[in-house]
Amino acid sequence: MGKYLEITKIQLKYNAWQHVLISILLLAASPLVLGISNLDAAQSAKVLETYVALVGILLFVPVFLPEQDRNLWDVIKTHYTKITTVYLTRILLSFLFSALLILVFLLVMQAGNCEMEPVKYYFGTMAEVIAFGGLGVFAYAVTDNLIVGYMIPLGYYAAGISAGYRYMKKFYPFGMLTDYETKYWILVAGIILMACGVLLIRKRR
Amino acid sequence: MFLTLFRKECAQTVKSLIYWLYVICLVVFFNTQLGSQYILTPPQEGQDSYYDYGFKTDITEQDIMETGAGTLVWAYYYDNYVTYPVGYAKNVTLSEEEKDEIADIIYELTGLKPDEIEADIAAYFEEHDIEASPYEVKLRDGLTYDEFLKYMDRAAEIVGPGSDYTEEKLKANVRIPVDYEGAKSNYSDLTEKDGLTGGYTRLFCDYMGVILGILPVFVTATRMLRDKRSRMQDLIYARRASSCTVMGSRYLALVCMHMLPVLILSFLPTVNCIKAGIEGVNLDYLAWLKYDMGWLLPMVMAVIAVGMLCTELTETALAVLVQTVWWFVSLMTGVVGIKGGSYGWNLMPRHNTELNYAGFADGFRQLAANRIFYAVLSLALLALTILIYERKRKGHLRRRGKISGNHKNSVKV
Amino acid sequence: MKTEIVIKGLNKSYGKKRALKNVDLRIEKGMFGLLGRNGAGKTTLMKVLSTLLEKDSGKVKVCGIPVEHASDIRKITGYLPQEFSMYPNMKVYEAMDYLGVLSGLTKEQRRERIPMLLKRVNLYDNAGTKVRALSGGMKRRLGIAQAILHDPKVLIVDEPTAGLDPEERVRFRNLLSEIAEDRIVILSTHIVGDVEATCEEISVIDEGKILFRGTVEKLLSLVDGRVYRAEVSRKELDRIRSSYNVTSMITLGNNVKVRFLADTQPFPGARHCDAGVEDAYMYLMQGEGENPCF
Lengths: 205, 413, 294
Fold this sequence. Notes:
The complex is a heterotrimer of chains A (about 200), B (about 425) and C (about 290). With about 200 residues, chain A is mainly α. Chain A has one domain. Helix content of chain A is about 75%, strand content about 0%. Chain B is an all-alpha fold. In chain B, about 65% of the residues lie in helices and about 0% in strands. Chain B is globular and about 80 Å long. The two termini of chain B are about 45 Å apart. Chain C is α/β, with parallel strands linked by helices and about 290 residues long. In chain C, a hairpin with a 2-residue loop joins β4 (about 55-60) and β5. Chain C is globular and about 70 Å long. At the A-B interface, α1, α5 and α8 of A face α2, β2, α10, α14 and α16 of B.
């Protein structure tokens, strides 16, 4: 148990805090850009899906970042803790942070009298967060390039905006009201991609 | 040395995976948005609609007032007030008192009482196509333009920043579909003043600009991070080449390599225009080059300069974040002027139609100033990047230590 | 222009930490060894010499050129950092070519020098290999080749043997010695064996101060006739440690073989032996060399 705490502590202290901070800033800046009070169900969904879920990209993509340096990678790999454990702990940490941030955001929206089904909306947003995160983690692992890790989920986001449900079918990222089933699809896809990402990066280095 | 380095940088770019991702994105985007573009043919008298031929370009104060009042009545009727503070639609909910005040304003403008509105809207769309024309309302007799603006000012105050009721927005919102005469005039603008290709290349720039406002940052950030990742920095720092040469050649190479596929793609609309073989057109064969250089190049230059500066300064992916935010805000605020003419200082000027040459001509000075500004800004950012590089080369601004504290500690894990 | 480096009163601090304190040195043609433990200030000194770090005060001239004139210095110095690599997807030849351009070599010069240097460092057959596929030793050799690509008068090499196996290390030293025939080669290391075998002149640095500067013989003379060895039990070791300067020890079962310094015969059973560079180095490191010897 102590080991996991240690990984968490170090990850927070040296790596994750910047990304958590940026995520908080992104969410805190939302009232400047869009309304988060008195929204109807469709508007609430839009805010959550097209804005809030972006924290998935911010929080998940950099999980491999500390080992970008190859020398360091060798050191870590020879250590007694399995690198997979380190990654899984970090992913879990990112998950917890995104879950927490989005919960807080949802509560603020509710307090602002926004119309929504809280559980459904929460799950739907988290599914999208995982999908963005999984796609980013996977892209990073395949190319070993952080920038591509950001680019691909942003591309997915942009495709969602421009192509829409008609073309993306079950992989439409913003299907909260159009087709809630999409949420299960993208959630599963996100988890699979994330797992593949971790396996790939292990093999890669 | 500069040119050899430039060539080597170009070669490096071509060999990088992310560059090809960039090219793929461009091609896919081009194909989905402009791939099956058809070239507008001359309007025929008695056509069903002239929807394809744009909007009236000579609008009157009367038009502005009718459309503006219509927008307000519409919003009041559906109780749906949308503002665009940063371009992102923001729904504003008004209190009962505020709604009553809006109703009073509507009465002053049109003489309509709240319970008469529904019938008026219904009557209007009996006569007009709901797809093609926005709702317009008859004004109270004797209402002057100044009075109208005064009332609208108050409405704008109630609804909040970014509303439809400021003078600028009121003007932008007037979109009156043309009749045959108007269509003919718009079309002759396109074929004569724009040389046909001009209009289509401008449309190309509008679309491609949307993604060129962000994509180059990915390639740039990757290239800049590469020195650090490959632990090549010190080897380069210790060499004779000046910081100006190293960064300058890199910048030039990135700009050229980003523009290359754009230039090729931009030629396709021109080919389409030629193939269309429309009679009596004075084709401008070089429009693509003019527009690529004048419209898209400054944008690409700016994005790459931002990418280089942020990455050189922080050695992180910060550039991606900065450019994404800039792109997003620019895209959202650009929506207002999407039909062209009001280019403002937007990084990505919009002109989402092959028509509206009049708007282009009107806004040309602003557009030119805008593009020159971004070109100059890019060079200033490049100069700053060179300065930072030079400082780092002498041991400043760098994280000290052979392996930074960050790494030492994560090793413990 | 004389091939020499003159350093006078050089100071460099990182925040509160003083990395170099009033360093005075004169370095002439040949191999020059800079010996010191990790963090002694070796890398800082080397970076100042290769213009990658600006000094706080003092005078540094490389072949008569003040170090402030970075671009002129860079023309005549070659630098091999402690940690380096090259773009991993480049081939060996490409990487050299790229760095050659940055050094201002013409196409003809590059065509002529690169194959020659690759032969010299025994990488000619690997000219088409990608950098990422090179072993540690090969990478080091490539590092040397890139550092002398523009035929510099001064070659600065930071901890070049770290991470090399013993055989590679010997080969590497020989390579450096060859290169040093007609220029200054400054080699920094914390491994005594590296300088012992190759350097005519050495300098010992600790906590930013130069403790010694001279030939290997001169260094040995510091402890000449004062080195003893003995095999003692573990219990006795503590006593020896408290009264003598122990320079090395090897544990053998319950006993320990120690080398230590003493002015006179310390105890029966201790045998006199020849001084090594390591003994002298330890002597300096353990504070007995308070007054630098020049």
